[in-house]
Specification:
2 copies of one chain form a homodimer.
Chain A: E1 2-7, H1 13-27, E2 31-35, H2 42-45, H3 50-55, H4 60-69, H5 83-87, E3 92-94, E4 97-101, H6 114-126, E5 134-138, H7 144-148, E6 156-161, H8 165-180, E7 186-193, H9 196-205, E8 211-216, H10 219-223, H11 237-254
Parallel strand pairs in A: 1-5, 1-6, 2-4, 2-5, 6-7, 7-8
Antiparallel strand pairs in A: 3-4
GO molecular function, one term (chains A, B): ATP hydrolysis activity
Keywords (chains A, B): ATP-binding, Nucleotide-binding
GO cellular component, one term (chains A, B): cytoplasmic side of plasma membrane
Chain lengths: 258, 258
Amino acid sequence: MKLAISGKGGVGKTTIASTLVRIFAEDHPRVFAIDADPDACLAQGVGIERQVAQEHRPVIELKEIIDAKNAGGGAFFTLNPDVDEILEEYCLKKDNINFLRMGGLKKGGEACYCKENSFLNSVVNSLLLDRNDVVILDMGAGIEHLSRGTARGVDAMLVVVEPSLNSVGTALQVKKMSEDLGINRVYFIGNKVRTEKEKEFLSSKLPQDLLLGIIPYDDEAVDTAMEDGVAISPQGIIYKTLKEIKKRLEEEVGNRDI
Amino acid sequence: MKLAISGKGGVGKTTIASTLVRIFAEDHPRVFAIDADPDACLAQGVGIERQVAQEHRPVIELKEIIDAKNAGGGAFFTLNPDVDEILEEYCLKKDNINFLRMGGLKKGGEACYCKENSFLNSVVNSLLLDRNDVVILDMGAGIEHLSRGTARGVDAMLVVVEPSLNSVGTALQVKKMSEDLGINRVYFIGNKVRTEKEKEFLSSKLPQDLLLGIIPYDDEAVDTAMEDGVAISPQGIIYKTLKEIKKRLEEEVGNRDI
């Protein structure tokens, strides 16, 4: 099962992506956690130290190796099944979690991340998965990864939404653009919901059958933001709500043929 | 004076950018408010209706006109002083505010926003300003606009920071990349600060002389997020703190020769 997490900046994509990775890793032998945002912090959320993650080699380096091998062989290449083996070298492992990051930091004015996005798409599509493997992609904020088609080929797009008009606007735009990409399963996850009014707001703005769940606002995520390490504890309401959402995902996405 | 507003997703860039635009427009005859994020909502923050802004022609169309004119004339072009006149057609006006947006929405998989970012840079650099004109650019979340160099040429980069390690990490990265671009004045604005502990956290993590101000958390911004229209009232603490920050900007940036 391959899932991408998207939504407007600040809605909680990385918190939700990293927590889902941990929950799936409880009963799946291999979960790939892929950081597709040059500014994201997925590693910390799954318990890998910030510094260690930042120094780890990004997947884009593999492209340079392939390019060097294929020099003179034309502009196109296909990742062959061996990629799985090579990819092992790019994974930072923590228990059942295999962490990968798309690209490294660049200098100001150096270049866009088009190459990284395009190569990540090839890698995700080439990953040969066992039936129980899970891939979770934490996308960049906003909609450019969709106009680029980075997550083309995932089984479902999960859009995180907080109770604001702007966040809902982005979410509906993500749905439309995901469908352009041929991703037919797009679901919404409500987040940071404080009041009954906010819950009703989200329920009224989003298609009911696609709203996988609503995560209540919890000071836990704010209070731990100034500290290093995993912010979300398995005892808190965020983790518990996401466990329910994970069950629905397995029912709706997991049992179908990929 | 040309200013760019950046920072991690969700820190409050658009709220701060739009409020600064309104404050500068109180005593400056012409303020350009430029939305440089394909997913942003700067227009609503300055009182322009969502629908009207979305249907307004984006600046990138001007490039297509120039390209058509120069067909066969080589790959390079320079915007000449006439650009100011032509740009008038791309501005949505509201009192002293001239709103411009970088690019339109695209389909999923259609293209990146590299062309839009690069052209926006030319436009911002070509704007001939009177001494009292102000340009405020609301950048996309994260750091890719810096690796692209979209805001190269502004007089100052304002980085919005909330009390979290991730937000501080992005802010310091923005500072470094801005300096790569030759933007030597980089300032920080603390936002959504609830407690004395959070205030101390930001003060301890950021260079004191570059921290222009700290905006307290205010339910106003959350409570109005589900409604259309301008969220920040001139009577609230967010507006008042930004008025002080605007004064400092005029002292530190405005009085120097551009």
